[in-house]
Here is the input.
Amino acid sequence: MILVLLGPPGAGKGTQAPRLCAEFILRQLSSGDVLRAEKRKGTPLGDQVAWFMVSGNLVPDAIVTEVMLAQLKDPAGRRGFLLDGFPRTATQAESLDKSLRSNGKRVNLVLSLQVADEEIVERITGRRICPTCDRVYHLRYHPPAKPDICDVDQTPLILRDDDTVAVVARRLATYHEMTKPLEMYYREQGVLVEVDAAQSPDEVFARMIEIVRGRWEGGS
Ligand code: ADP
Ligand code: AMP
Here is the structure.
């Protein structure tokens, strides 16, 4: 099973990803988390991608694709993968398809999260993340039990350096220009399903479960 979460920044991909992975026994591969981990460790790759990320631009296709396809080799005992944030361009989608095809696999389902741009700004500026386990919180919509402390591992939460109003505008423009067209790409493959992500996290999750079960466990 290769499940892809598509959607603008702040749509709720990182919120739903761990829940879906637990439900369907998938390995979560979030490109943003992978790149942020490299930045935090100060690796050459981290240094290379830092400027693109903090300015709200996409990291070059060749870099992201190499990192993500390398991770795709190992399902770590899971039944498949959940890809969050990758692919984000037509070139990345084509490289992914090519790599999967060479192993007799394909993208089985793409859930495309739909949220209005105005709601996105509110979600992103209130977002806080755990730098240790990458759990996602929101000051209003999903506060941690103790203010600014991760529920899972007690690490102090942080505001991402790209979660500012100015950078969000850039990321949204990039999404509309480079990533939104992937809906058509996957629609033509017959694997795209749109999800109303303006609902509460629990409602969005319930709808996603229904879709995945219908598509995958229902055998279509
Ligand atoms: P993405 O991974 O798509 O960038 P996140 O999952 O990090 O988005 O969500 C962005 C912010 O919005 C987070 O602070 C999260 O807690 C909050 N959020 C996620 N889903 C919802 C929702 N359905 N309703 C309200 N807030 C949400
Ligand atoms: P995210 O955590 O998904 O919001 O991603 C944060 C940032 O990481 C993006 O704004 C990009 O700079 C970079 N990034 C993540 N995934 C990709 C990708 N698939 N292609 C290019 N850049 C990416």
About this structure: The beta strands are 2-6, 27-30, 81-84, 109-114, 127-129, 136-138, 192-196. DSSP finds nine helices and seven strands in the chain.
